Amino acid sequence: MSALPLRAGPWEKGMGILALVMLAAGSFWGLALAPHDAYQGSVSRILYVHVPSAWITFLAFFVIFVASIQFLRTRNLKYDTVAHAAALSGIVFNGLCLATGSIWGKFAWGTWWTWDARLTTVAVLFLIYAVYLILRSLIDDETRRARFAAVLGIIGFLDVPIIHFSVYWWRTLHQPASLLRPDSPRMAPEIMYPLLFMTVAFIVLFVHLVIAGRRMYEAERSLEIRRQEQVYEV
Amino acid sequence: MDVSSSTSASPGEASRPFLRAHGIVRRYNGVPVLRGLDLTADRGEIVVVYGPNGAGKTTLLRILASLIQPHEGTLALDGEDYEERAYIRARLMYCGHGTQIYEDLEPEENLRFFLALYGRAATDAELKDVLERVGLWRVRHLRAAGFSAGMKRRLSFARAMLLRPPLLLLDEPYTSLDAAGIEMVNDFLRDHAAAGNTVVMSSHSPELVRTLPHRAVRIRAGVLAADSDSARIDGADHVA
Amino acid sequence: MWLKAAWALLRKDALIELRRRESLFSMAAFGVLSLLIYNFALPLDGDSAKEMAPGLLWVTVTFTAVLSLGKAFAGEKQNDAVDALVASPAPLPAIFLGKLAANLLFIGIIEILLIPLFLAFFPVATGFSWGWLALTLGLGTFGMATLGTLFSAMTVTLRSRELIFPLLLLPLMVPIIIAASHALSALIEQDMGAVSTWVQLLGIADTIFFVASLWVFEFLVED
Q1: CB neighbourhood size of B180 (10 A)
Q2: Residue of B nearest to A75 (CA)
Q3: At what angle do helices C2-20 and B107-117 cross, to 10 degrees?
Q4: Closest in A127, A134, A162 to C205, CB measured
């Protein structure tokens, strides 16, 4: 029987340390060094968390999509653990994106929630993530769980652009588009560079979390197999 | 498509087993149920698989039925790999613990629908004949919902009698049948195998299959243990 | 072989429904009830009715359809009949197609029943083209039924499937709900430019869902 993966591998550790360093540096850059928005003041600095977490929300969906297709092609459960870990991290970033968007909205527009096209899209994605995780929790047999989750992962990802366009047209066909722009159309480089840096930091953090999540699931599975084999005395 | 045509084997094929499963591994949540199981069955042979509850009899039959894929190992029917789904499925029929009967359909409707899945149709005379054989002719205008478990099992069997599949897979076929029903099943299986078809079935009761010429195998620890009380029928001689 | 198997399934499901009359009757009753409840609970007179009517029609259609779609595979699970379907030489996409066709038939019947009632309860201008109405409803229904059939096959084996089925279906069909109800709004307002935008979106969504479902269906029924 293979050993329980109790210790983090070099990739997991490396990515974790790199993410910590980059997040600290990016926060300092964004919060202390970069200039604040002329109209919104320091509140706009929430953008350094809001925008990267939105990117990770979409990136995680893409990772689930690719991992799901790979699982269905190869039937290798390794890809299923990738999809599961990506979904678990994805929903956290998705929630972060929604929370920061809501806080920003309170200060920028005086309301906690607005049916902004992108915010609405992200809210629908949150529901899909949640259902994906609920579905997984309902199935005991790991191959069936992996198959069903993969099907949902594929359909869900294909749905993302359709959701985006439907929500976008819904908000633009009847209302003037000016309301929909939380950020200025052209971003100043002093804001854009720390934002890009933070996005990369978030991606590194996401990769770390996916590796760590996979290790966690594999440890759980190995433990469960050991337990069962003791029961059956084989 | 006429599935029964493949039952007329040419002499050269006699040496190659009709059904061949090699190194079958299937795990449930990582714990192996089948651990490299090998099984072959010739034309005209009835193989009875024994084993205690949880030994993997149902898993094996479902793998042979192409309903689930083994995690490792290869399967071939009539020399064709199981990857060739259409070819394989045109030649087999699986009847599990469930009778696969639609409760809101009458016997004839059930039979006609089942045959339609195989691209086949039956004449009224054929349907009458088979329903008489399974003893359901007088209830032919009733919905299966009102049938007893044994009657549903008989109706389930009537499908096999119409289809005459080259490979018939049965999981505990005697469940809920009375003595006459068991006799009926055994008569059919004897006749079906004698016509050159292969039957693989699971059972937990050697009593019930005693009158049937068969080869008994046992699943133990995920593999087939040595064949016991072999009473092989000389299938090759009986090929029609 | 393809169409034959799909046709056999459609016929079988129609015959069973004709015998049981379970889905259609409960769907019709539920639809009428929803329309009544909207009238009781919402201030639906004059202009507000006109604005809310398209959305309410789609909400009614959606929830009514969820009622029957969720059980689309329940009959196949009974006695493990689905094993016979999968182990048969009938192509799996054809089986999906047959189940989808049956669902479309049932939901279509309910829609034809609900729309005159709806127009009676919510007096909106009926100067629009009936062809466009049929197209909008048809495309919306097709997308919904496609996803519904797929998730019905998925949830039929799960515990608490009545709970999880709408949870799966509704978030994924958000774009269909948006597009179909706004297409209806635009139709009533005779804004044909907006109608065609939404119809295009529905067409694209339907195509993507349909093709993807035909492909992934096998992974739901075959292990």
Answers
A1: 11
A2: B71
A3: 160
A4: A162
ipTM: 0.93
Which of C8, C86, C91 lies at the smallest CB-CB distance from B116? Answer: C8
- Determine the residue among B95, B117, B200 to mutate to test chain C binding: the one whose Cβ has the most chain C Cβ atoms within 10 Å: B117
Question: Considering only CA atoms, which of C193, C209, B159, C164 is closest in space to residue A133?
Answer: C164
pTM over 0.80: yes
* Residue A133: closest CA among A74, A73, A79, A90: A90
What is the helix (H) or strand (E) element at residue A138, kind and residue range?
A: helix A117-138
Q: Parallel, antiparallel, or unpaired for β B92-95 and B167-171?
A: parallel
Which of the other chains make 3 or more beta carbon contacts under 8 angstroms with chain B? A, C
Q: Predicted confidence band at B124 (pLDDT cuts at 50, 70, 90)? A: very high
Other CB atoms within 10 Å distance of the CB of residue C51: 15
Pairing type for strands B72-77 and B19-28 reads antiparallel
Radius of gyration of the CA atoms of chain B, in A: 17
The residue of chain C with its CA nearest to that of A127 is C171
- Distance in angstroms (rounded) separating the CA atoms of residues A128 and A65: 13
Q: Is the pLDDT of residue B232 over 50?
A: no
Looking at residue B136, the DSSP 8-state letter turns out to be -
Is the CB of residue A118 less than 8 Å away from at least one CB of chain B? no
- How many Cβ atoms from other residues are within 10 Å of residue A34's Cβ? 20
Residues of B within 8 A of C71 (CB-CB) are: none
pLDDT surpassing 80 at residue A173: no
A221 to chain B: which residues are within 8 Å by CB?
A: 29-30
Cβ A163 vs Cβ A121: under 8 Å: yes
Taking CA–CA distances from A218, the nearest residue in chain B reads B30
Residue A123 confidence (pLDDT) = 96
Report DSSP letters for C149-196, one per residue: HHHHHHHTTSTTHHHHHHHHHHHHTHHHHHHHHHHHHHHHTT-HHHHH
Q: Name the band, by pLDDT with cuts 50, 70 and 90, for residue A92.
A: very high
Tell me whether residues A163 and C175 touch, CB distance under 8 A: yes
